[in-house]
Write a structure and sequence with these properties.
In the C-terminal section; belongs to the transpeptidase family. In the N-terminal section; belongs to the glycosyltransferase 51 family. The longest helix has 40 residues, at 32-71. The model is unreliable at 1-22, 25-29 and 829-848 (pLDDT under 50). The protein has 4 domains: 31-72; 80-288, Orthogonal Bundle (Penicillin binding protein transpeptidase fold); 360-477, Beta Barrel (OB fold (Dihydrolipoamide Acetyltransferase, E2P)), CATH 2.40.50.140; 493-643 and 685-776, 3-Layer(aba) Sandwich (Beta-lactamase). The strands form 6 sheets. Strands 6, 7, 8, 9, 10 and 11 form a 6-stranded antiparallel beta sheet that branches. A 5-stranded mixed beta sheet has the order 2-1-5-16-17. Strands 13-12-20-19-18 form a 5-stranded antiparallel beta sheet, with helices on both faces. The relative contact order is 0.08. A hairpin with a 5-residue loop joins strand 1 and strand 2 (98-102). It contains 24 helices and 23 strands. The termini are far apart. The chain is of the alpha+beta class and 848 residues long.
Length: 848
């Protein structure tokens, strides 16, 4: 055995190991031990490879299992291709000024190509710098976040996330905010799918328009307005960076409550933009040096018309539904003229206040209690008041003046601006003695309303010149009213105010208050007569009238406002002086079915009762309807429908409604270059003959020149109209017009009661109309009412209708249709009365 062993140990070369010669390496590795090692290493490597393959197969299987298990029943991400987020509906005035916005989530959707590149860079730098290179998941960021979270978890620190913008879109649109492994897995799966189905820009557009950025802002466009009152293309670099700082937690970076944290986060975003190469170092430093200045949305381009806007909102809600109104992104162009609306508001406000002052002083707003903070108390009362009305504390009162504290300074109420503050009338309507001592009205500690003297022109009398520290004493009117301004040719509503203060009452008295119009209805009785062949000079008997109303009912005995009778009078005088007896007798002659037809035809009342009292305005209507009816008189008898909306566009700019439905070939040209003017057809229905309408307009001009509206004659304007007053002076009306504008005014208490002794349409409504018209028509050319063809203009006596020379002191120019002449038969004359007036040689008119 030893020999064998020796032989086995011999080197195959024959050299002795003790010779000090090292055998070649190839001989060493070919030894049995070396081969064992090699075989062991190969086996281990094979095992490792096998394990890797097995783990890989298991991993792939696990991934496939996760995709199979969690991928089932996921929301359909492809629906986002047609996704239209709820966006703000905006209502604009006729000149484009913003009136109102309606939205459950205040969002403005902006296409990606309309978003400034720097704003996109800011969000990418802050939220997902690898957005344009990853496939939906940022593996590098995810690995880094996992390693960091292991450390943070051990140290009790907040865990960080690594969600890409794609993942955020997936979560916001398709999943919930639930914090769980399941939700994160679903989020990852959907993100991978979205990246295959959508472009990066499509995903980014969804993100930037959907993300919540605080202060009620959904999307970057709404946030730009809410934080900086700017459109996206107006934002500065520092403002873009601040918006990009908000997605993580808007409340943590509130610009006012947490300004320091907000600035630090904004500057971090700027650093990220600079590191990513989007801005230079100089740009970043310049932007970081700017303070964070917030400018809330001021609506500087807006207009204020709450009653009008609410009527539009109701119409949209009715026609298109709640979803379209609060999330459909409609753009509604209305008919409103902001300048006329402001004038109408001011005229109504001053008219109601002037009437209320004539009713006497009802006392202060309140009292300053012991220990109350003066500034806080005045601020609380101030919230209730209209613009240019101020809550003031009375600090001292003397006989002829009171000292007040208002707007942070001392001021004075002189007696000359508070003389009206006598006690209210008693139950019999008797006015008490005029105020002689200001201490009888107010005392120290009272909280009162005051106004600059410029807002109370009716109080400036006897050459009194207010000084800078003077204020007029005021009070909130108890009486209410409304004013409507309309284009008579189209029915477009140019202005509407339905009450004194929308903040106090949203009840719109222009469209919701049904009231008796009184004498303001009479022109349509006379119009029916004109259409039946009567002339403005036709005489009607003004004498007592008794009408039997049926068994068990009292006799109806109408009377004139003056309680007098005037005998035979021409129709013109009947409308100018608003004679009740003449109107009732004319209605009897025509028949109530005819009167009902005209009320229905002109949209005043669709179901007027067949009672003779209806001819004197006993049938209820509203201001909008009555104003529209007068508009059809001045436009030549054409039917128009009151309209608040010119056009509605959907979120894509497509017009889905247009008030004027006429087709216009050639109107698509943006500029006029001497091409023929397109011929638009007049599709309005003709409700009365143009000649009858013009005769009625002429008679209503007489109301201004010689009748119940003669207060307006001094304005040197071409105006016409009619007053209206109901029984016991409960409602006062004036509906008047110029050639291209019709205006209606209503004044009355919400719970009907007398306006005051001798308060009529002439005293309460006419001044409001006049104050509006003198401003609305300022600097506009004075043009006459448009005269139709085929009529004759003949000078006649204003009271008798007989022909006179143009130089006669009572001469007026009367309008006659073909075949009509001055003079004529008396309607319903008692026997023995001469029915023919002198006609100065002209043929006596034939009557029916």
């Amino acid at each position: 055995m030893s020999d064998n062993t020796q032989n086995n140990n011999d080197d195959s070369t024959g050299y002795d190991a003790g010779d000090g010669y090292a055998p070649p390496v190839r001989h060493a590795i070919s030894s049995p031990n070396s081969w064992s090692i090699i075989r062991g290493m190969a086996k281990a490597f094979s095992i490792i490879i096998s394990l890797i393959i097995i783990v890989g197969v298991i991993g792939v299987g696990a991934v496939l299992w996760v995709f199979w298990t969690y991928g089932k029943g996921l929301p359909d991400y492809r629906q986002l291709a047609q996704y239209e987020p709820p966006v703000v509906t905006r209502i604009h005035a006729g000149n484009g000024a913003l009136l109102a916005e309606y939205a459950n989530e205040k969002r403005l959707f902006v296409p990606i190509d309309a978003i400034p590149p720097q704003l996109i860079h800011a969000f990418i730098s802050a939220e997902d710098k690898a957005f344009y290179s990853h496939f939906g998941l940022d593996v590098k960021a995810l690995t880094r976040a996992m390693a960091t979270n292991v450390v943070n978890y051990g140290r009790g620190k907040r865990l960080i996330g690594a969600s890409t913008i794609t993942q955020q879109v997936t979560k916001n649109f398709l999943l919930t905010n639930e914090v769980s492994i399941d939700r994160k897995i679903k989020e990852a799966i959907l993100s991978l799918r979205m990246e295959r189905a959508f472009t990066k820009d499509q995903i980014l557009a969804l993100y930037l328009n959907e993300i919540y950025l605080g202060m009620g802002s959904y999307g970057v466009a709404a946030a730009a307005l809410n934080y900086f009152d700017k459109a996206l293309n107006q934002l500065d670099l520092d403002e873009m960076a601040y918006l990009a700082a908000l997605p993580k937690a808007p409340s943590n970076y509130h610009p006012i409550r947490k300004t320091k944290a907000a600035v630090i986060r904004r500057n971090w975003v700027l650093n990220q933009m600079q590191e990513n190469g989007y801005i230079s170092v100089e740009q970043a430093e310049a932007a970081k040096s700017k303070p964070l200045v917030i400018v809330p949305d001021t609506g500087a381009d807006g207009a204020d018309a709450p009653y009008f806007t609410e009527s539009v909102r109701r119409q949209i809600m009715k026609n298109y539904g709640e979803d379209a109104l609060y999330g459909g992104g409609l753009s509604i162009r209305t008919t409103l003229d902001p300048n006329l609306q402001s004038l109408a508001d001011t005229a109504l406000e001053r008219g109601l206040e002037a009437l209320d002052r004539r009713q006497g002083w009802r006392g202060p707003l309140g009292r300053l209690e012991a220990g109350e903070d003066v500034a806080a108390t005045l601020a609380r009362y101030q919230k209730q008041l209209r613009p240019k009305h101020y809550a003031a504390l009375v600090t001292d009162v003397a006989r002829r003046e009171a000292q007040i504290y208002v707007n942070g300074k001392a001021a004075t109420i002189p007696f000359k601006l508070a003389f009206w503050a006598y006690p209210p009338r008693d139950d019999d309507g008797v006015r008490p003695q005029p105020l002689k001592d200001l201490r009888d009205a107010i005392s120290a500690g009272d909280i009162v309303i005051v106004q600059p003297p410029s807002e109370t022109p009716d109080l400036i009398r006897d050459g009194f010149k207010p000084e800078a520290h003077h204020y007029a004493l005021g009070q909130r009117p108890a009486v209410e009213g409304a004013i409507v301004v309309m284009d008579p040719h189209t029915g477009r509503l140019l202005a509407m105010s339905g009450g004194y203060n929308y903040a106090d009452s949203e009840f719109n008295r222009a469209v919701q208050a049904m009231r008796q119009p009184g004498s303001a209805f009479k022109p349509f009785v006379y119009l029916a007569a004109l259409d039946n062949g009567y002339a403005p000079t036709t005489r009607i008997l003004d004498a007592p009238l008794v009408v039997d109303q049926g068994v068990g009912k009292p006799k109806w005995k109408p009377a004139n406002y003056t309680k007098r009778f005037y005998g035979p009078s021409i129709m013109r005088v009947g409308i100018e002086k608003s004679r009740n007896l003449m109107t009732a007798r004319l209605a009897m002659k025509l028949g109530m079915p005819e009167i009902q037809d005209y009320a229905r035809r002109f949209g005043i009342n669709d179901n007027l009762p067949p009672l003779l009292s209806m001819s004197l305005g006993a049938g209820e209507t509203n201001l909008m309807r009555l104003t529209s009816a007068y508009g059809m008189l001045v436009n030549g008898g054409k039917q128009v429908t009151p309209s608040l909306i010119d056009r509605i566009q959907d979120r894509h700019g497509k017009t889905i409604y247009r008030h004027d439905e006429r087709q216009c070939d050639g109107c698509e040209n943006a500029l006029w270059d001497n091409q023929p003017i397109p011929d638009l057809p007049d599709t309005r229905s003709q409700l009365t003959s143009p000649a009858s309408a013009f005769q009625m307009v002429s008679m209503l001009e007489g109301v201004i020149q010689r009748g119940t509206g003669r207060l307006l004659s001094r304005l040197d304007l071409v105006l016409a109209g009619k007053t209206g007053t109901t029984n016991d002076n409960t409602n006062g009306w004036f509906i008047g017009f110029a050639p291209d504008m019709v205006v209606g005014v209503f004044v009355g208490y919400d719970k009907p009661r007398p306006l005051g002794k001798r308060e009529t349409g002439s005293t309460v409504a006419v001044p409001i109309f006049g104050n509006f018209m003198v401003k609305a028509l300022a600097d506009k050319p004075v043009i006459p009412f448009r005269r139709p063809n085929g009529i004759s203009i003949i000078p006649v006596h204003a009271e008798t209708g007989e022909r006179v020379l143009p130089t006669h002191e009572k001469a007026i120019l009367e309008v006659f249709k073909p075949g009509q002449r001055p003079g004529g038969q008396l309607i319903d004359a008692p026997s023995g009365v001469n029915t023919n007036g002198a006609d100065n040689g002209l043929a006596t008119q034939e009557f029916f």
